[in-house]
Amino acid sequence: MKSSVTSASGTHFSTTWSIGDTAARFDLPTHVLRHWEDVGLLAPARDAGGRRRYSENDVVRIAAILRNKSAGMTLEQIRVLLDEDAPDRHAILQAHVAELDRRMAEMERSREMTLHAFKCDQHDMTTCPNFIRSVADLIDGGTWTTGPPDGWTRPT
After folding, report:
1. Per the domain annotation, does 60 fall within a domain?
2. What is the pLDDT of residues 65-92, one digit of tens each?
3. In angstroms, what CA-CA distances link 5 with 20, 125, 129?
4. Is there a smaller number of Cβ atoms within 10 Å at the N or the C end of the chain?
5. Residue 60: pLDDT band by 50, 70, 90 thresholds?
6. What is the total count of domains within the chain?
7. Same domain, 68 and 113
8. Tens digits of residue pLDDT in 5-38
9. How far apart are CA 134 and CA 125, in angstroms?
10. Distance separating alpha carbons of residues 52 and 43, to the nearest angstrom
11. Which domain holds residue 127?
């Protein structure tokens, strides 16, 4: 249900939504929005009866929270992202970008291995010499943090 409300800071929002409508909009249970409020990610206005009323700005924040959660950010990282005055904002964002870069490299390696498996004549990938080379560093106790290992070739 839409209504009009004034936030605690005095900002007037002509269109607001109930917690149920807002949660349904994002296919979330209402308790998630309450939790995000408890940890400082959201601060919806209240109507005269004390019920939460979510503004367009709140809806944008919820979308940002969801998008950043899907990118792997923690709620604490998202809280800092959304807090323009957070003293460690840039450091946290830089760390997250580095983590995204690492995850993207892992995804690329996974994609390469999947493409190799798709085109390889070996039905059991664990017997393919190229596949074995692609995981040798992990077998030896290391981590694969860069591109494909030396000797990796795509089947043609």
Report:
1. yes
2. 999 999 888 999 999 989 888 888 888 8
3. 16, 61, 66
4. C
5. very high
6. 2
7. no
8. 555 555 555 799 999 999 999 999 999 999 999 9
9. 11
10. 9
11. 104-139
Q: What is the DSSP string of the chain?
A: -EEEEE-TTS-EEEEEE-HHHHHHHTT--HHHHHHHHHTTS---EE-TTS-EEB-HHHHHHHHHHHHHHHTT--HHHHHHHH-TT-TTHHHHHHHHHHHHHHHHHHHHHHHHHHHHHHH-S-SSGGG-HHHHHHHHHHHTT----SSSPTT-----
Which two tokens mark 79? Answer: 């809280």
Amino acid at site 12: H
Measured CA to CA, the distance from residue 60 to residue 3 in angstroms comes to 18
CATH (domain of 18): 1.10.1660.10
